[in-house]
Structure to design on (522 residues):
C-alpha cells in the first residue's frame, strides 16, 4: 500500500518532470515564433486557446463573460501570412457570420484563402470552467487538435497562463507563447508592488499580502498610520481583475480612530468593524462573499489616489522569446463603477503630457520582468493626477498594478494592426499606417443597451452595411466590432473606432452608438 508520504513524493517528482519537459518545449519558441509586424512566408502553425483561466466566481460578475473568448479573434491577423495555419478553440461554437466578418477584415489576401487555413474546434461545454481545463478533460478532442497541426512547427498562445495552460501545452506537445505559471506572482497586486519598488517606480503606499480579516484590518491601519491624511483606502484581492476585486474603505467616518487620536489596536478594531460597510465595485458583491475570498486569493490594502482631475493611463509591452522588451502601446483608460475602478474602454494613445514618461517606466518594468524570466504580454496601469495650472497641468504618476496577460487594451491594438497593416512607433508613441498616416482609436468592451438584446450577429452586419459603419480600407477609418456573440442575450458588444485624430475616433464611436440606437428603437 502506498503511504501518503510516498504519494506526495511521487506527485512532487511528477511536477519536477513536467516542469523540465515544459522548459524543453519552451526552448523551441525562438525558432517557431515571429512578430506580427513581419510578413512571413514560412510554414507556421498556431493554436489559439482563449481560455479565461481566472477565478471563475469573480468572472461571473462580468455580463456575457462566456463570450469573451471571442476577443482574441483578432489573432486571425496571422492568416495574412500565406503559409500560416491557425487553429482556434472555443467552449461553444462561434456563429459563422462572426468568422466571416473577421476574415473579410484581413487586408491583402482573399478571405477564401485564409478560411482554408483556419480550423475551428469547440468543446461544446458552457460550464464555469476555464476552456483549458475543458480541453484537458476531453482526450479525443485533444487528439484532433494534435492532428490539426505540424508539431514540429506549431506553438500555442492563450489569454492568460496558469497551470492549466502549461498542462495543455504538455498534453499537446507544443511550446506556449505565454508566461511560465511559476512566475504568476509578478502579476498579482503584491507582486506588482515589489516590481515597482525594485524599478524605482512611484506607487501608492500599501501593505504586505495577508490572508485573513484580522491581519487585513491591522495592515489597513498601518497604511493609514503611514499617511494620516488619507481619506480612503482600497482593499484589493491579490488576484482580482478589471477592478471587480476592489473595495473602498472610507476613512472619514472613522476620524475618532485616526492616527494620533487612538491606539493602533483600537484603530484596527474599528476598521475590522467597518469592513461590512465597504463600497464594492460590483453591485452584487457583499462583505461576506468578498471576505471568503481572502484566505484563498489573499488581499492587500493600498492608499486610494485622490484628485479632482485624474486620468487612468496604461502602457502595454511584450517580452519576446528572444528576451527583447518592446513597448506596444499606451492608452487612457475609461473607468466606471461606483468609485471609477472598473475597466470600460480605452483611447489610444495616452495623452501627450505623459505618454513618453509611462513608456519609459513601462520599459524599465518590462526589463525587470524579463530578468525574472517573464514572457509575452504585460500591461501596467497608472493613476495620473493633474497638479498646478489647469490649462497646463503637471501630472503626478502612480503605478497601480501589472497584468501579466492579454487585457482590455490588447484586442483594440490587434484590430488596428489587422485593419491598417501599420506599426507603433515608440519614439513618439503614435501609430502609423502602411501609408505613414497617423491613426487613433477609441475602444470599448461595454457598449450595452437593453434594446440591443435580440440582435443576432447577422443583424449587426446588416446595420453596419446599411449605415456604412464598416471599416473603410481606402480611407483607413471606421469601426471594427468584437464580442458579437454577447448581443442577443446581453445587448452588449465591443468595438474599436479608428480615426485620423482623437476627436475623429470619438466622433465615429458616437455615430456607431447613434446608428445602433436608431436601428433598435432606442
Amino acid at each position: 500500500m502506498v503511504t501518503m508520504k510516498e504519494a506526495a513524493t511521487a506527485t512532487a517528482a511528477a511536477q519536477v518532470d513536467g516542469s523540465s519537459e515544459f522548459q524543453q518545449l519552451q526552448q523551441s519558441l525562438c525558432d517557431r515564433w515571429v512578430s506580427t509586424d513581419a510578413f512571413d512566408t514560412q510554414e507556421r502553425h498556431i493554436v489559439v486557446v482563449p481560455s479565461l483561466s481566472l477565478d471563475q466566481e469573480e468572472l461571473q460578475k462580468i455580463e456575457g463573460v462566456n463570450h469573451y473568448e471571442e476577443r482574441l479573434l483578432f489573432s486571425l491577423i496571422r492568416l495574412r501570412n500565406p503559409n500560416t495555419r491557425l487553429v482556434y478553440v472555443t467552449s461553444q461554437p462561434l456563429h459563422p457570420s462572426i468568422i466571416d466578418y473577421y476574415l473579410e477584415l484581413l487586408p491583402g489576401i482573399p478571405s477564401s484563402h485564409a478560411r482554408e487555413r483556419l480550423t475551428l474546434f469547440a468543446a461544446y461545454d458552457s460550464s464555469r470552467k476555464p476552456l483549458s481545463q475543458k480541453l484537458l478533460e476531453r482526450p479525443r478532442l485533444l487528439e484532433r487538435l494534435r492532428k490539426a497541426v505540424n508539431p514540429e512547427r506549431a506553438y500555442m498562445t492563450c489569454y492568460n497562463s496558469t497551470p492549466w495552460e502549461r498542462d495543455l501545452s504538455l498534453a499537446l506537445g507544443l511550446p506556449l507563447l505565454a508566461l511560465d505559471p511559476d512566475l504568476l506572482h509578478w502579476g498579482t497586486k503584491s507582486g506588482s508592488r515589489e516590481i515597482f519598488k525594485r524599478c524605482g517606480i512611484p506607487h501608492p503606499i500599501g501593505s504586505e499580502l495577508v490572508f485573513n480579516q484580522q491581519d487585513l484590518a491591522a495592515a489597513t491601519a498601518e497604511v493609514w498610520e503611514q499617511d494620516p491624511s488619507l481619506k480612503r483606502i482600497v482593499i484589493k484581492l491579490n488576484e482580482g481583475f478589471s477592478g471587480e476585486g476592489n473595495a473602498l474603505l472610507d476613512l472619514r467616518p472613522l476620524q475618532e480612530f485616526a492616527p494620533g487620536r487612538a491606539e493602533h489596536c483600537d484603530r484596527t478594531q474599528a476598521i475590522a468593524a467597518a469592513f461590512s460597510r465597504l463600497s464594492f465595485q460590483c453591485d452584487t458583491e457583499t462583505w461576506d462573499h468578498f471576505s471568503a475570498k481572502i484566505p484563498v486569493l489573499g488581499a492587500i490594502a493600498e492608499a486610494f489616489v485622490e484628485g479632482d482631475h485624474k486620468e487612468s493611463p496604461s502602457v502595454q509591452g511584450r517580452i519576446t522569446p528572444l528576451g527583447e522588451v518592446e513597448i506596444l502601446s499606451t492608452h487612457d483608460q475609461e473607468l466606471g463603477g461606483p468609485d471609477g475602478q472598473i475597466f470600460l474602454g480605452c483611447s489610444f494613445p495616452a495623452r501627450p503630457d505623459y505618454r513618453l514618461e509611462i513608456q519609459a517606466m513601462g520599459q524599465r518594468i518590462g526589463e525587470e520582468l524579463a530578468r525574472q524570466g517573464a514572457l509575452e504580454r504585460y500591461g501596467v496601469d497608472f493613476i495620473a493626477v493633474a497638479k498646478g495650472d489647469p490649462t497646463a497641468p503637471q501630472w503626478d504618476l502612480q503605478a497601480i498594478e501589472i497584468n501579466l496577460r492579454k487585457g482590455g487594451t490588447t484586442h483594440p491594438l490587434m484590430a488596428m494592426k489587422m485593419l491598417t497593416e501599420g506599426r507603433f512607433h515608440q519614439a513618439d508613441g503614435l501609430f502609423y499606417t502602411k501609408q505613414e498616416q497617423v491613426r487613433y482609436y477609441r475602444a470599448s468592451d461595454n457598449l450595452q443597451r437593453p434594446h440591443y438584446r435580440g440582435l443576432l450577429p447577422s443583424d449587426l452586419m446588416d446595420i453596419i452595411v446599411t449605415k456604412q459603419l464598416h471599416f473603410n480600407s481606402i480611407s483607413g477609418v471606421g469601426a471594427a466590432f468584437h464580442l458579437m456573440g454577447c448581443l442577443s442575450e446581453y445587448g452588449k458588444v465591443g468595438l474599436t473606432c479608428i480615426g485620423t485624430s482623437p476627436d475623429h475616433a470619438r466622433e465615429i464611436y458616437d455615430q456607431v452608438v447613434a446608428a445602433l440606437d436608431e436601428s433598435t428603437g432606442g
Observations:
- The chain has three domains: 19-178, 205-303, 310-520.
- Residues 28 and 175 are 7 Å apart (CA to CA).
